[in-house]
Structures are given as C-alpha cells and as structure tokens.
Inverse folding.
C-alpha cells in the first residue's frame, strides 16, 4: 500500500514536470553511495561486531539459566521445599536480569540505537548535506533515492547524481582531514606548554579514577564472595540433609536388627 502511494505521487510529479518543462529532477542511489564511503563500511562493521558480542553475551546468560533449571529438576528429590523455593527465586531473578540486559542492548533507546546514531548517522548526514548542496547549485526541484521504497519504473543515467554526491563528500572529508591535522598539531603544541600545576591536576584526577576503579573492584569482589558463601551454605544444607537421611536410615536398620535379635532371643527362651 505504501509503495503504491509513493508510485502514485511519483506519477503526479512526472505529470507535473511534463506540464512544466522548467522543473528539474535528479536521483541518487543511496546504497551505492554508502558502499563507496570507507568510513560507512568501517562504522557498519564496528556496529555488526558489537551486536554480535551483545548477542553472544545474551546467549551465554540464557544457557547459564537453562543449566540452573536442569540442575534444579535433577536435584528436586533431595531438596527441602525451602531450598527449592530459594533456587526457583534465584532463577527468576536471573531471567529478569536477562530481559533487562536485552532491553539495554536492543531496546528503543538501547546501546545499539545509540551506537548506530553515533557511528552511522553522521555519515548519512554527510550524504544528505551533499545532496542539498548539489540540488541548490544545479537548481533541481526534486531529488529521489533510487534504493528507497519509491518504485522507479525507468531512470535515465544522465539524471543520476550519485557520483557528484560522492565527489563532494570526498572533498569535504579531505578538507576535514586537513582541519583535524591542524587541530592535532595545535593540541600537541598546547600540551607541551602545560604547566606543572596542570600536570598535578591530571595526576590527581587519574589517582581518583584509579581509586574509583579499585573501590568498584572491591564491591564486585564482595558481591562475588557473598555469592560464593551463599552457594557454600546451600551445599552445606544439602550435605547435612544427606547425612540426616543416612543417619535416619542407619537408625531404622539398627532398630530393625535389634528387634529381630530380641525376637530370636525370646523364641530361644520359650523353647
């Protein structure tokens, strides 16, 4: 339906152009342009690598939860209702944490959206700005994107300004590269003139940063220690439970044996 509407709009525009010869139309192939911008390829590859790592992390957490479920199913017979409930709650907490992590990665305002906006949107903006500049210079009334959902039944190559857009982007990037080099040289000279007080400030800042990292590591270690202590406590409960069952079993066997011996002794006395 959307494509039909766009096609209808295009036909109206073409009809308008036929009626008014002074109107000018051009088109671009956005896919072709982006695939010929090295920065776009690098940005897309970086985004794909990050997404792959995020998905691998989610899969790892999901597998860990499945292991917990399997272990619980196998050990239910020897666990007390209290331990079963505790482990079920632990699984629910981990499942909720996994859902939150997935939302953090791929949610509406998640890390993928933010990273895509940071890496790819500036390059797309370059393309749009170049199109605007060329359209203004060449006095085009309309510029269409051939790779979009708009159906183009025919397009004359002479109206394709994709190469012009690419050339303009390359020129802008070269100019930006020169500006970046000049700025880097200025920054280098400025860094050489940094005062001793500034160096001390940077040292204090770095020391504070290291302290925060150390405190964070301590907190993580405390959390890890508590988790391990909790696991040990569970194992100890299981051990005591097994020993209790074993002792009860032995006591029953001893009582049964004594009962049998008493019965035999009574039978001997009766004889």
């Amino acid at each position: 339906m959307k494509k039909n509407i766009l096609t209808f709009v295009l036909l109206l525009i073409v009809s308008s152009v036929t009626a008014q010869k002074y109107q000018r139309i051009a088109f671009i192939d956005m896919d072709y342009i982006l695939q010929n911008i090295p920065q776009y390829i690098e940005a897309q590859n970086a985004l794909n690598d990050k997404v792959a790592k995020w998905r691998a992390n989610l899969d790892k957490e999901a597998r860990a939860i499945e292991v917990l479920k399997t272990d619980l199913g196998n050990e239910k017979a020897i666990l007390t209702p209290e331990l079963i409930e505790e482990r079920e709650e632990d699984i629910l907490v981990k499942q909720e944490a996994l859902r939150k992590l997935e939302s953090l990665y791929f949610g509406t305002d998640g890390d993928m959206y933010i990273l895509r906006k940071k890496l790819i949107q500036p390059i797309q903006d370059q393309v749009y700005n170049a199109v605007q500049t060329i359209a203004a210079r060449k006095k085009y009334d309309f510029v269409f994107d051939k790779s979009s959902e708009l159906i183009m039944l025919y397009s004359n190559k002479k109206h394709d300004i994709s190469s012009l857009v690419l050339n303009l982007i390359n020129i802008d990037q070269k100019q930006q590269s020169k500006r970046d080099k000049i700025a880097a040289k200025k920054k280098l000279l400025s860094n050489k003139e940094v005062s001793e007080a500034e160096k001390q400030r940077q040292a204090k800042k770095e020391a504070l940063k290291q302290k925060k990292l150390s405190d964070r590591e301590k907190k993580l270690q405390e959390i890890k220690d508590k988790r391990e202590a909790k696991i040990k406590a569970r194992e100890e409960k299981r051990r005591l439970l097994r020993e209790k069952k074993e002792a009860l079993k032995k006591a029953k066997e001893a009582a049964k044996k004594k009962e049998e011996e008493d019965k035999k002794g009574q039978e001997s006395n009766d004889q």
Notes: Confidence is low (pLDDT under 50) at residues 1-9. The beta strands are 25-28, 142-145. The two ends are 105 Å apart (CA to CA).
